[in-house]
Every structure is written in C-alpha cells, then in structure tokens.
Amino acid sequence: MSLKIINAKRIEGLDSNVWIEFTKLAADPSVVNLGQGLPDISPPIYVKEKLSEIAAIDSLNQYTRGFGHPSLVKALACLYEKFYQNQINPNKEILVTVGAYGSLFNAIQGLIDEGDEKPVDGKKWSSSDWTLDPQELASKFNSKTKAIILNTPHNPIGKVYTKEELQVIADLCIKYDTLCISDEVYEWLVYTGNKHLKIATFPGMWERTITIGSAGKTFSVTGWKLGWSIGPHHLIKHLQTVQQNTIYTCATPLQEALAQAFWIDIKRMDDPECYFNSLPKELEVKRDRMVHLLESLGLKPIVPDGGYFIIADVSLLDADLSDMKDSNEPYDYKFVKWMTKNKKLSAIPVSAFCNAETKLQFEKFVRFCFIKKDSTLDAAEEIIKAWTRQKS
Ligand SMILES: Cc1ncc(COP(=O)(O)O)c(C=O)c1O
C-alpha cells in the first residue's frame, strides 16, 4: 500500500462518533433502543402510497432540477409563505438537499471560511428553569462572529425558544451583522402551551437567516433524507453553488412523493387530521408516558416543550459503574454502556452534543427518544418496572 495515501487533514480527530458507537451497542435485538432519534411508528399511509405510485412513472425515475424538483419547491413555497410576511420565490429562495444535514453542510461550506469565528454556543442557560441567559449569550458575540446555529425546538433539551428569547438572539445577530442558520427540523413537534416561532420572521432577520427543515422529521420518514433551506437569494445562491459542485441533485421520486404529501396536508392545515397537527398530539401522549416512567425510577426528567427526546440526570440513580472499563470516559457514556449491558435499555449520552465549555453541565444527563410505537414503550416500561423493584 502506498504511504502517500493518508487521510486529509480536515477529517483528523473526527473518526470516533457517538452515533456509530452507541448504535452498534444497541444493535443487539434484546436491547430496547431509545437511543438514536429514529421513529419506529409507521409513516402516514398516503406518504408511502404516493411514493409507490410515483415509482411507476418512468420520467420521475430520472434526474430532476438540481436545486429542487419543481413541484416540491412550489409546495414548500406555498407552505412556508403562510408563516413569512413575504412571498417566497421557489426557484431562488429554496434549495432542496440530502436531509437537513445536507442543508447545514451547504450553508457552512457556502458561507463560512476556515478560520472564521466558530458559531456561538448559547447552550448555557440559567439551569433552574432553562431560560436563555441574555448576558451570557451577549458575552459570546463580538464583531468577528460570523454565524450562529440556532436550534428551536432545541435538541437535546427540547426547549422551544420564546418570542422574547428569540428577540434577544435576533437583536444580537443584527447588532453584530451575524448570519443565523436556524435548524427547525422539529418545527411541527411542539407540545401544549408552546408555539414555534421562526426567527426569520423577526424584523431585520429574513435577509440574514437560513431556515432549515427536514422531510424525515416532518413525515416520520428519516430514511428519505430530504431537507431544505429557505432564505433570501443573496444567501441561498451560495448554497446552490455548493450543491451544483457536490451532490448536484436529490432523488426525484422521493421529491415528487414529498411534494404530493405536502399538498395533502397544506389543504387541511386547520384540520386535526393534518399530520402537522396529529403527530404532535400523538407524541405528547408518548412524552408524558416517558416522563412518568422515568419519574417512577426516581429521576427528574426535563420535560421537553418540543422534539421527540427527553433528558434526565441519571446520577440520581447511583448506579455502580465500577466495572465499566474506560475510566476516562464521561459519566454519561459509562452510564449508557452500563445500562445497555445490564438493563438492555439504550439511550444517548448528552455530553456527546456539548463542547468543552458545556460538557460539565450535561455530563450526568442521558437522552431517551420517545417517537416509538406502544409495543416498544411497553418493553421499556417492563425494564423500568423491574429495575424499580430491584432498587426497593
Ligand atoms: C436538530 C437536528 N438537525 C438535523 C438533523 C438531521 O436531519 P436529516 O435526517 O433530515 O438530515 C437531525 C437529526 O436527528 C436533528 O436532530
């Protein structure tokens, strides 16, 4: 083997990955997997039916427009115009790509240079009530801050930022002329008492915001890997440049099926049957079930306002982790490995999402996913009940 062929510098240190490591652990069929954010509920029937009908049409099995299949960008423009004050140009202000991650990739590649200031990490809240600390956040901005990545509903604590909190963020972005990449993949998954607001609709924010969505999260079809970016043409055109020089286009049948699924729900948005309304209702019941289960074990989960994850400080369980081998690993990593091995229940360590600054605050937390069918939650309940009995 030639010694000249080695890794590129830009991937150095990126080889280990929490998803790969913990997904492998949870692959044992005897483990109940509440780790990776993967729905095991069925996607809506009409979404699956549309895809199979479309696969039978020859022309829809060939390449389509690179920046987004025409019928899909039209549907997305029609849907999102309902939330923005302005009309959205489907060809110039929307880009369809490979999942929301593809959108993040295009945005970062197209707009951020190596050596630019790192995106602001605003994850430090006053932890009693998880409100954003405006002073803490302001202290992270300076005139060189080029971009922030915003997540609302926030993953992993499931926080939905309030109007006031978003205004604080918007004011800082405007003051420091900062780009906002707003990852809103859980936009429809918001529970009673909360409302998802788009930061791009705040005065002065449209021209500096890229809003990202995901078909996987919208229609419970994560395997479709379709996502989109919406924003002003002066920003989107740079993401389009990245796309035309990398992946070029996304799967045509998936895009057409997604467009047709959107039209079904766009026409009934005030109807409880609309998937944008019915899925959060279904998930709120599952969320509450998970809250009670974790509480029955003696935990105090942080009840999420949105999204489909719930986190809890597991150090309260006082588990004996002495036989977990790698003592340098954070507590949450060791705990999840211990729980997967000994209780046959898997989750994700929250510190995997944190940088060095916020790791300490979250090292004792693990994350459970609750977009699971009742039989999966029943199996988790059995495990937790047996565990509770053992403790007492
Ligand atoms: C906050 C957030 N953004 C983006 C993604 C990626 O979405 P997609 O599968 O559409 O690439 C995920 C997936 O879990 C996510 O949780």
TrEMBL record:
Pathway field: Amino-acid degradation; L-kynurenine degradation; kynurenate from L-kynurenine: step 1/2
Family under the similarity heading: Belongs to the class-I pyridoxal-phosphate-dependent aminotransferase family.
Coiled coil: none
GO molecular function: cysteine-S-conjugate beta-lyase activity; kynurenine-glyoxylate transaminase activity; kynurenine-oxoglutarate transaminase activity; pyridoxal phosphate binding
Function: Catalyzes the irreversible transamination of the L-tryptophan metabolite L-kynurenine to form kynurenic acid (KA), an intermediate in the tryptophan catabolic pathway which is also a broad spectrum antagonist of the three ionotropic excitatory amino acid receptors among others. May catalyze the beta-elimination of S-conjugates and Se-conjugates of L-(seleno)cysteine, resulting in the cleavage of the C-S or C-Se bond.
Keyword Heme: no
EC number per UniProt: 2.6.1.63, 2.6.1.7, 4.4.1.13
Entry keyword Acetylation: yes
Organism listed in the record: Neomonachus schauinslandi
Record's protein name: Kynurenine--oxoglutarate transaminase 3
Any one GO cellular component localisation term in the record: mitochondrion
GO biological process: L-kynurenine catabolic process
Catalysed transformations (reactions): L-kynurenine + glyoxylate = kynurenate + glycine + H2O; an S-substituted L-cysteine + H2O = a thiol + pyruvate + NH4(+); L-kynurenine + 2-oxoglutarate = kynurenate + L-glutamate + H2O; 3-hydroxy-L-kynurenine + glyoxylate = xanthurenate + glycine + H2O
InterPro entries to which the protein is assigned, alphabetical: Aminotransferase_I/II_large, Kynurenine-oxoglutarate_AT, PyrdxlP-dep_Trfase, PyrdxlP-dep_Trfase_major, PyrdxlP-dep_Trfase_small
Gene (name only): KYAT3
Domain Aminotransferase class I/classII large: 30-118, 125-378
Subunit structure as annotated in this protein's UniProt entry: Homodimer.
Cofactors: pyridoxal 5'-phosphate
Keywords: Acetylation, Aminotransferase, Lyase, Pyridoxal phosphate, Transferase
Domain of life: Eukaryota
